[in-house]
UniProtKB/TrEMBL annotation:
Keywords: Flavoprotein, Oxidoreductase. The lineage of its organism: Bacteria, Bacillati, Actinomycetota, Actinomycetes, Micrococcales. Pfam families: FAD_binding_2. The keyword Oxidoreductase applies. It comes from Leifsonia soli. One of its GO terms (molecular function) is steroid dehydrogenase activity, acting on the CH-CH group of donors. InterPro entries: FAD-dep_OxRdtase_2_FAD-bd (IPR003953), FAD/NAD-bd_sf (IPR036188), KsdD_DH (IPR014614), Succ_DH/fumarate_Rdtase_cat_sf (IPR027477). This is FAD-dependent oxidoreductase 2 FAD-binding domain-containing protein.
């Protein structure tokens, strides 16, 4: 072949496309190798809701939010809980990312055409302490165009370069080995897979029709994490989160299998923090699945009553949208793989959003007329479709009917008397505008933020109020999503070996690097930081590799 790349990028997801774009902007030639068909160009980011973490943005200020780098730093480090020797580079990455999110991140994206929905969301509201886990203020900026809107400028840059011969995109090329010569990574070897017309995210064949070898001075691993490989998830599951679930849904396609992590390790890369991971507890079975065990996450407001599988209420402050891993740890210690939301039609209309670009056609399609329906009566269309067709939803006019419906789809016996008691106790707390129920206090506090009051948090009401009905119960499953550990790198994205030395010629970005350094989130994340980690780590490594 006459085309000789300056860099090879393994993986055509967001982090890889950003790294490739930076290399192309510096005048370098790039080859991207990707095992999936061209339909999956853009990787997991395409499926995302497009949330990005920004600090002291114009959108925040217009909503009356007073944010600062100092406050965000308190929140990040209070959430991360760094406590290991291996956290040296993750700490450096966290600090650098905070500077980026408070500095040029928004302007850099804006220059590329990325725009944001004006209402800033408040995700991961925390554990109830000022110095602990969680966002003190709303920081979840929804991209106009959701995940595809984030991917688009980088995909366009790479595809344009491919059209004029500065880049090559080689789909159905599965990397099986990093070539190491004289201690330096000099290329990749692997299998050419048979063509496949599968739609985005759907399983593709693994039929080998040939092999390949490519060489370049730089190889960038951008292959993602392990969320589609439940065996690897269970193998890495930490004791602090209890026993791994016997049953989980997948929030990512099956090809997110972690293969490249072991391949990079064989080439000298140091893998760290593999036991740090991010899975959701509000997963529901997709009634129209694309991949195996396809789950969708509910992005909940704070008003639903959360019960474990037996029917006991989750303890304070484990409310919807507050503490993802705290809730996961508690539920795993109950011994069941699922839990329940109990709510009303009034709550589902105001508070339920579904994660993912395909579940938000108004934001994804930049359809203002469709978006306006979010403030009119009725649940958003995709939410209503799940309520009507989803296997995990129960709708009833009375509490007895609701509990009977829950019992029918339960895997373990539901204590209906216990569940009913919690509903009645909660409702009695609404006889006054004050009380001792901390969840109701949190709901009232949330509505002091204009964004929550407008489109996110229902006014407090009794679950058994007929005017707010019908009653709804949702069976919630554990949903695999992100790896928070990975390949250790320095701040340039250069891969490090176990002794701390650089592996020459090798870089890692995105989820494969724990979104930077081998785990810049520490034990927990603040949301809106996964896409941002792909952007930042791809940018850092692409620029550094262009200088190499």
């Amino acid at each position: 072949m006459t085309y000789e790349p300056d860099a090879i990028v393994v993986g055509a997801g967001l982090a890889g496309l950003v790294a490739a774009s930076e290399l192309l902007d510096a005048g370098r030639r790039v080859t991207i190798v990707e095992q999936e068909p061209s339909a999956s160009f853009g990787g997991q980011a395409w499926w995302s809701f497009g949330g990005l973490f920004l600090i002291d943005s114009p959108e925040q200020r217009r909503m009356g939010v007073h944010d600062s780098l100092a406050l965000a730093r308190d929140d990040w480090f209070g959430t991360a809980g760094f406590d290991r020797d291996e956290d040296h580079w993750p700490r450096q990455w966290a600090e650098a990312y905070l500077q980026f999110a408070a500095g040029e991140k928004r302007a850099w994206l804006h220059e590329k055409g990325v725009r944001f929905f004006p209402v800033v969301g408040w995700a991961e509201r925390g554990d109830g302490t000022a110095g602990g886990h969680g966002n003190s203020v709303p920081r979840f900026h929804i991209t106009w165009g959701t995940g595809p809107g984030v991917v688009e400028p980088f995909a366009r840059r790479v595809q344009s370069a491919a059209a004029n011969g500065r880049a090559a995109i080689r789909n159905r090329h599965r990397v099986d080995e990093l070539i190491v010569e004289d201690g330096r990574v000099t290329g990749v070897r692997g299998a050419v897979l048979a063509p496949d017309g599968s739609e985005r995210g759907a399983p593709s064949n693994r039929d080998v029709v040939g092999d390949f070898e490519l060489r370049a001075p730089v190889v960038i691993v951008a292959s993602g994490g392990i969320g589609g490989n439940h065996d690897l998830v269970r193998a890495a599951w930490p004791a602090r989160l209890g026993e791994p679930p016997a049953s989980m849904l997948s929030g990512v396609p099956a090809h997110v299998d972690g293969r490249m992590l072991g391949i990079a390790e064989n080439a000298g890369a140091h893998l760290i923090n593999g036991d740090r991971m991010w899975h959701y507890t509000e997963g529901i079975q997709n009634w129209d699945p694309i991949w195996a065990r396809h789950g969708i996450r509910i992005l909940p407001g704070p008003s639903s009553l959360w019960l474990d599988a037996r029917g006991d209420r989750l303890p304070s402050p484990l409310y919807p949208g507050f503490d993802t891993l705290g809730t996961l740890e508690h539920l795993r210690r109950t011994g069941s793989d699922y839990s329940w939301f109990v709510l009303t039609q009034k709550i589902i209309e105001k508070e339920f959003a579904l994660s993912g670009s395909e579940q938000n056609p108004d934001l994804t399609g930049k359809d203002v007329r469709l978006l306006a329906k979010r403030v009119t009566p009725g649940a958003p269309g995709p939410v209503e479709a799940f309520k009507e067709k989803g296997a995990d939803f129960v709708v009833a006019d009375t509490l007895d009917e609701l509990l009977a419906g829950m019992q029918r789809i339960a895997d373990v016996p539901l204590d209906t008397e216990l569940a009913a008691r919690h509903v009645h106790e909660r409702d009695r707390q609404l006889d006054n505008e004050f009380g001792k129920d901390l969840q109701l206090a949190a709901i009232r506090a949330a509505r002091r933020y204009r964004g929550d009051r407008l489109i996110r948090v229902a006014s407090p009401h009794k679950l058994l109020d007929p005017a707010a009905g019908p009653l709804i119960a949702v069976k919630l499953h554990i949903l695999t999503r992100k790896s928070l550990g990975g390949i250790e790198t320095d701040l340039d994205g250069r891969v490090l070996s176990a002794d701390g030395s650089v592996v020459p010629g090798l870089y890692a970005v995105g989820e494969a690097s724990g979104f930077g350094g081998g785990g810049m989130h520490g034990y927990r994340a603040l949301e809106g930081t996964f896409l941002g980690g792909c952007l930042f780590s791809g940018r850092q490594a692409g620029r550094a590799a262009a200088r190499a």
